[in-house]
Amino acid sequence: MRRLMVFILWLIVALFALVIVIGFFAAIGRVDRGDLTEIVESPEVADSAMDKVAQFGVVSARARASGASQPVQISFSDDEISALISDWGRRSEWWGSIERLQVSFGPDLIVLTGELMSVGLNFDFRVDLEVAIEQSERRVEIRRMQVGDIHAPGFITTALLELITRTVDAGLPRIPMRIESLILGEGELIVSGAAIP
Question: Whose CA is closest to 145, among 121, 188, 113, 189?
Answer without folding.
Answer: 113
